[in-house]
Design a protein that fits this description.
The complex is a heterodimer of chains A (321) and B (276). Chain A is an alpha/beta fold and 321 residues long. In chain A, 40% of the residues lie in helices and 19% in strands. In chain B, helix 1 packs antiparallel against helix 2 and helix 2 packs parallel to helix 3. Classes of the chains: A alpha/beta (321), B alpha/beta (276). At the A-B interface, helix 4 and helix 6 of A face helix 4 and helix 5 of B.
Chain lengths: 321, 276
């Protein structure tokens, strides 16, 4: 075992750093673990891995297409590559390599995609990643996971060991991601976790929106409204059972994600419910526009990715009864 | 007992002609396909599979096998032909080119024995081969990785990302073979976007380069036998070839990059390629 005891401190409330800490643990567990960087050594906190397992680290430089292609080639030889990259670049620029070399050829490549959503708010639309879930989710064979906090990011990264196929792990940036999941309840790929009970409305959230959903639920409870909160970290495969149960039991679904309203969590839930159990929905996320430049939280708020907006959506559904 | 050089070259040349005949066999079954790039690659494929590469057709997943990635995947008919001749696949598969639910389509697919990676979207193979060579080094395996790249394919910038990385990591266990037939789908490269000086580009990227006539079997064998060209650099073989080589009506023209292969075309091709 590695000296993983202090990983929480080193992850500093950021999922991107928890990923790097989990790689250190995976490196110790499995000699086939190899880390591929696209000039992202600090972004994903992998310097401890590099120090400890230098012979299993490959720096590719600022070349995302090459990073994915090389990772696919490594995987064919039996290695277990983890590609560390910026979400906006690895999902869009190297999308063809992800589709052909990784998804179509079904290679066990794990992509750690940091700085997703509008975590690089001040960097502008060129650096926002608001379509990556739609892109990655559309490929057969892909598993798509959005951890809500460092506990889940760490567990999900370890869990990739048992996923027989490619994985896209969507990670945050430098914005604090409060802990909302219970480390004692283990992450399971394809399983959504209920964080707050309630039968009046259900909020299905992923990533940074989960803590806002929890806050919303706690606020609503004071007003006598029981809002179930479900952390849907596994976008693909989707936990149909838990989501359908929420639709049947609450009859009102709000989805919340830091992603375009096209093709992400809300889209996935709507695809399921419209066929299996049509349910009134509201969707929180980025509308069909490129986001403004600015600090992440302010940009989120501008486009309705806030606890206040989630609460409004819940109340609208309740008023529509 | 041992094969003389003359016998070796004759054997490989015959095998290359068999590849060309089998390309037309497959293309007739499929109604057409990539004649030009399949025929330009045939001699090199023959020397790789029947002389240089250590492979076990009956054990295609043998971990220590040499790897071959056909980055110019549109020449898959030639790859299927060599795999059939080597015994990786049943030659009857050649008659199922393009057919419904066949493992043998326009581009390589790992569903078929002997295929290392799904390629054909251009500019992917060199990165994949670089990963294979790195994997060999990490796991202390002795296999060599070969990747064949089309010349027009080198317009794709991803190749040059991989070329940088392979030389940075001193991958002497990696060889790129450029099938330099000078013609792409729409015409001559000099009239599209030129690639000369080809060898100098690879040298500038840190590769050890040899230029050969890709249809001179002696030169092909000598180059493959000299690998690696340098103990700490990846090797590049710039093979000057003729698109459509061996079939006069298809030689050196973009019109036969891909075209229909009717029974009549097949008969004309076979007459030139001569059953032996």
């Amino acid at each position: 075992m590695s000296d993983s005891g202090n990983w929480r401190e080193r992850a500093a409330t950021q999922t991107r750093l928890a990923f790097g800490q989990a790689l250190l643990e995976l490196g110790a567990r499995d000699p086939r673990t190899v880390v591929v960087s696209a000039d992202t050594q600090d972004l994903l906190g992998i310097r401890p891995f590099i120090e400890r397992f230098r012979e299993r680290f490959i720096e590719m430089g600022i070349a995302e297409q090459n990073a994915i292609g090389v990772a696919a080639g490594l995987a064919t030889t039996g290695m277990r590559p983890y590609v560390c990259a910026y979400a906006p670049f690895i999902s869009a620029r190297s999308m063809e390599q992800v589709r052909n070399d990784v998804a179509y050829a079904r290679q066990r490549v794990v992509i750690g995609a940091a700085a997703s959503g509008i975590s690089l708010g001040v960097a502008g639309g060129t650096h926002h990643s608001l379509e990556d879930l739609a892109l990655m989710r559309s490929f057969p064979n892909m598993t798509v996971i959005v951890p809500a906090d460092i506990e889940e990011a760490y567990q999900a990264t370890l869990a990739t060991q048992d996923i027989d196929g490619p994985v896209y792990l969507r990670l945050g940036g430098r914005v604090e991601e409060p802990t909302v999941t219970d480390p004692a309840v283990p992450f399971r790929c394809g399983k959504a976790r209920v964080l707050r009970p309630g039968n009046d409305v259900a909020i299905l959230a992923c990533g940074a929106m989960v803590s806002l959903a929890v806050q919303t639920s706690d606020d609503l409870r004071a007003a006598g409204i029981d809002a179930r909160v479900i952390n849907v970290s596994s976008i693909k495969p989707l936990d149909r059972e838990t989501i359908l149960a929420a639709a049947v039991e609450t009859r009102r679904i709000v989805t919340a994600e830091e992603h375009h309203l096209t093709g992400g969590l809300g889209g996935a839930v709507a695809e399921l419910l419209s066929v299996e159990h049509p349910t009134r929905m509201r969707m929180i996320g980025m509308p069909d526009a490129f986001a403004s430049i600015g600090p992440t939280v302010k940009v989120r708020e501008k486009y309705g990715m806030s606890a206040a907006a989630i609460e409004r959506a819940c109340r609208e559904l309740l008023d529509a009864r | 007992m041992s094969e003389s050089r003359a016998e070796l070259l004759t054997r490989l040349e015959r095998a290359a002609q068999q590849i060309r005949r089998d390309v037309f066999r497959a293309l007739r079954a499929g109604g057409g396909g990539h004649v030009g790039g399949s025929c330009s690659a045939a001699d090199i494929l023959s020397a790789l599979y029947f002389h240089r590469m250590r492979v076990r057709p009956q054990e295609p997943e043998w971990p220590d096998r040499d790897r071959f990635v056909l980055s110019k995947g549109h020449a898959n008919a030639a790859l299927g032909a060599v795999l059939a001749q080597a015994g990786f696949i049943d030659p009857a598969i050649l008659d199922r080119f393009y057919h419904f639910d066949s493992p043998f389509g326009m581009h390589p697919d790992i569903k078929m024995a002997g295929i290392e990676m799904c390629t054909g979207a251009l500019g992917h193979g060199l990165a994949i081969a670089t990963g294979m060579a790195l994997g060999a080094r990490m796991q202390k395996q002795a296999f060599h990785t070969f990747v064949m790249i089309g010349d027009g394919e080198l317009h794709e910038g991803s190749n040059w990302e991989a070329a940088l990385a392979a030389s940075h990591y001193r991958l002497a266990n990696l060889t790129a073979i450029i099938d330099f037939n000078k013609i792409a789908q729409s015409g001559r490269l000099t009239e599209l976007v030129g690639l000369d000086p080809m060898a100098d580009k690879w040298r500038a990227f840190g590769w050890e380069v040899r230029e050969i006539d890709g249809h001179d079997m002696g030169a092909v064998v000598d180059a493959l036998d000299s690998l690696p060209f340098h103990g700490e650099r990846p090797s590049a073989i710039v093979a000057h070839t003729v698109k459509g080589k061996g079939v006069s009506f298809a030689e050196d023209t973009y019109l036969w990059h891909s075209n229909n292969v009717t029974d009549e075309v097949y008969a004309r091709a076979m007459a030139e390629l001569g059953a032996r």
